[in-house]
Amino acid sequence: MALDTWLVKVKKTISNSFVPVRATPPHAKPVNKKSSLGVMAFEIAGLMSKLLHLWHSLSDKNIMRLRNECICLEGVRKIVSNDEDFLLSLACAEIVENLRMISRALSRISDKCEDSTLRSFDQIFDQFCNTGRDPHNWCMSWKDMEAKIKKMDGYVTITATLYREIEELTSLESSLKKSSQSKDHDVTTISRQQKIIDQQQKVLWQRQEIKYLKERSLWCRSFDTVTILLARSVFTLLARIKLVFGMGQGYPHSLHRSLSATVYPSDQNHPSSLDLALGPCAKSTKHQESKGCLSHGFFELNSKLLKPPASTLGAAALSLHYSNLIIVLEKMTRSPQLIGFDARDDLYAMLPQSVRWSLRARLKGVGFSASDPVLAGEWRDALGKILGWLSPLAHNMIKWQSERSFEQQNMMPKTNVLLLQTLYFANQEKTEAAITELLVGLNYIWRFEREMHAKALFESADFNSGFINLQNSS
């Protein structure tokens, strides 16, 4: 009883004398708890991070990279397309599709707003997409957008920290609960109670830290505040996309050459929102294009470009499977001498029927001997060249797919891989021809390595036998 009384006094002393880690900011505005985001802050932080990633992908540096590197990849030109305008249209369509997904998520959030204008976000945004009209002047200048980007980046960082701290609190509370229920007889009662008090103190400090982070993060922001921030950013993003790609009537016309001069207009010479939305190539035909966009819809026109043609791996649902197959072939080519019969059987099981047929046709009439070192060297060079342009597309396909699955658990995407850089739009016939060539070459090198290894063993055994006979005769 005396010990229990002492513990109660200690707990009260800790609670009364506890000083918060950080005080509430003196200028913090009171927040209406009914309209605050609360636990939805984590979902919205994820949405905000996607918007930030999309904005950065449209920077001058990344657009130049798209023009000079992405669409110039040897693999892209060989099995996707050699048409620069078509490749740019694919890049633009995917970026627009990413923006459409963000706008849809924002539309659901806007339904919770108190402001009736924000609740009509989807209609206002559709009007802006199709006609360029911006009745509320939500489209921002570059200077304002950059300021909002920094603000959102801060929100995402703090909200991500809040998420980790809440997980830490859950872990601490679980440990405290286990300690309280523990009946470990090897530990003295006083030591056990001291451990519980220490854990209680950690929990209190952790809760205080979380309270501070909630006040600074998206947790305590209102739906109206966050929605207007995201809505204006989405408007500006669309204007940026249309200017960069010189879009008219939903289709990209060309990649603009002087990005900073046109995409980042000065405040003194700021173009109208209609001109900003339609782009420089469309100004002379505004009325005709606006009429066309209204009848078909901006997003609908762009989404058609992302539908893979019937001749592609994407249409056959084989792009991911072929990517894994190519990566397996790449690993086997590096160490053909380590390939066993089980690995060969597993590889053959991965091959679609069409590749098996073409492989059998290529191997017809080929002998079982593979002892020519010159031919083996030529095959190694050929495989290296094929994998040099084919392997990057396969790896990009895996990255693209895994990022879409992984970003459900992470707030920040990690790569800038576009579908045109993958096997999704690759011609199926050309890709299968390249894979067949890899298989034929790998088959020869594998047999050559085995024959050379067997020959070396035979010569070694013959040498040892001759040496033993020589010793015996002497």
Please tell me about this protein's structure.
By secondary structure, this protein is mainly α. The protein is built from 19 helices and 2 strands. A two-stranded antiparallel sheet has the order 1-2. Strand 1 and strand 2 form a beta hairpin. The radius of gyration is 32 Å and the shape is flat. It starts with a helix and ends with a helix. The model is unreliable at 17-31 and 249-295 (pLDDT under 50).
* Helix-and-strand structural type: mainly alpha
**Averaged pLDDT, please?**
79
Tally of individual helices: 19
What are the low-pLDDT stretches, counting only 5+ consecutive residues below 50? 17-31, 249-295
Q: Which percent range describes the beta-strand content?
A: under 5%
Backbone shape: flat
Count the beta strands. 2
Give the proportion of residues in helices: 55-70%
SSE string, helices as H and strands as E: HHHHHHHHHHEEHHHHHHHHH
Biggest β-sheet strands, sense, barrel: 2 strands, antiparallel
Radius of gyration: 32 Å
Distance between the termini: 98 Å
The strands making up the biggest β-sheet line up spatially as 1-2
Summarize the structure.
Helix content is 69%, strand content 1%. It is mainly α and 474 residues long. Helix 15 packs parallel to helix 19.
